[in-house]
Amino acid sequence: DSKTNQIASPTLGPTGNRSYWISDYMVQQRPGYMMSLKTVSTRSNTPETINGENLKGGYGTAGVNMVFRTGREYDNIYPVWDWYRLPGTTSERAAGGTGGAYSLLPDHHYGKTAMVGGASNGTIGGSIYQMNEYGITANKSYFFFDRGEVAMGNSIKQAAANTAGGTIGTSVNQTLLNGNVVYSTAAGQASTIGSGQTVTPANLRWVNHDSVGYLFLTPVSNATIRTIQQSGNWDSINTAGTISTVRSNVFSLDLDHGALPTGGSYLYATIPNIAANQMDTYLASNPFTVLRNDSFAQGVTDNVSGISEITFFDRGAVTFADGITLSETNRYHGTSVIWDPNGQTVDLSFANVDGYATGNFTYTVNSQLTGTGAVWNASTGLTTITFSPMTGTAAGSTFKRTFTFVGAAGEIPEPAMLCAMSAAAILFRRRGLRAV
User: How far apart are CA 31 and CA 395, in angstroms?
Assistant: First the structure.
């Protein structure tokens, strides 16, 4: 409050998640933080430039994933921002890992892929983004839970470089530097760096900056931490701005997928409001279980709440810790799903993100469930759940149904176990895959 010089209590802040399905935007809000995600699809437009403004905003809708804890993380960072490494985006940059030689001037076109959107139950949500921009394709998902976010990507590919010697990378974050950065490559062995440094640690487990933790659920050796001074001017992004040089110290965490990747991937979690001395304990608590991260599906379980979020790019299945398997049986129908078990019931939140395709969507569960759209087949041991997607202006929005387990919650009838094992064996043999 500027008049009374009082600070609002974080406990009074809103809590929730909302998917803006028409504009391909998702917001996660908690009293202590906010996260946002902006993507683009065949139903929405990439950025535009008008009156000499937004001259470097070409990546502004390519999965920009910002994290706010104080609200000052990106305060006037724009003239010094490396616009080739916007937070959450997968992009090409120069051989040195920063900048680039191709234009980021927005050309304002419709997105090139339909499989974009997300499911939200009002409290948490997950978004799917099948990227196809600047000659780069990738399957990307952003899963928001109460404590933070898990981001994953796969099938990262670039056929031809825009810049000679350029490499593809994913920017975890790029904010103003606020204090030291702490990182760890082994439990109990943390290192601290100040400003003006660039390090690429082997077997990196976590990074903490400005009370935001970045966790690699599997250690990585392709992450670079920078705490360097970056410079630029307002005129370079807005012709009405000053040409005076602006300099700011910037923190960035970046993953390198190499030149012309054909199957790059990544997996990390972002946890706001966590101190560096809490990181080892938090990571050791096994906060998340990855269900899948491949070209068919991506999914993760929040082990605290037991809630899982899944995005299906194709027909596929995920198996939860209790042995329940959820399978999407429609081919090439992208969906975003939230599986929220609660004792004898489970809430299933669903959003059709595949270009608002028509026709029903079906799932199978290897347990007997009752509820609207659920049909039990005793001979196969599977419950088939059928959804009719939302239509009109509601197309792409989320709707939720509650199902009840028959018998013990999560009980898997013997026929279903045998059927699921046989079906999985056949599927893996046909596709030449291995079970994971």
Answer: 30
| Per-residue 3-state assignment (H helix, E strand, C coil) for the chain | CCCCCCCCCHHHCCCEEEEECCCCEEEEEECCEEEEEECCCCCCECCCCCCCECCCHHHCCCCEEEEECCCCCCCCCCCCCCCCCCCCCEEEECCCCCCCCCCCCCCCCECCCCEEEEEECCCCEEEEEEEEECCEEEEEEEEECCCCEEEEEEEEEECCCCCCCCEEEEEEEEEECCCCEEEEEECCEEEEECCCCEECCCCEEEEEECCEEEEEEEEECCEEEEEEEEEECHHHCECCCCCCCEEEEEEEEEEEEECCCCCEEEEEEEEECCCHHHHHHHHHCCCEEEEEECCCEEEEEECCCCEEEEEECCCEEEECCCCCEEEECCCCCCEEEEEEEECCEEEEEEEECECCCCCCEEEEECCCEECCCEEEECCCCEEEEEECCCCHHHCCCCEEEEEEECCCCCCCCHHHHHHHHHHHHHHHHHHCCCCC
- The residue-averaged pLDDT of 170-177 equals 98
Q: Average model confidence (pLDDT) for the chain?
A: 90
Q: In this structure, what token pair is assigned to residue 269?
A: 């979690």
The yes-or-no verdict on residue 329 having pLDDT over 50 is yes
Q: Which two tokens stand for residue 133?
A: 């921009």
What is the per-residue pLDDT for 420?
A: 41
What does the pLDDT look like over 199-245, one tens digit per residue? 999 999 999 999 999 999 999 999 999 999 999 999 999 999 999 99
CA 80-24-69 angle, 5° bins = 50
Higher pLDDT, 101 or 90: 90
Name every residue whose Cβ is closer than 8 Å to that of residue 306 and which is 6 or more positions away in sequence: 340, 341
Token reading at 52: 């000499």
Angle CA 293–64–146, to nearest 5:
65
> What does R_g of the chain's alpha carbons equal in angstroms?
22
Which residues are bridge partners to 186 per DSSP?
Answer: 189
pLDDT digits (tens, 9 = 90+) for 397-415: 998 999 999 976 556 655 4
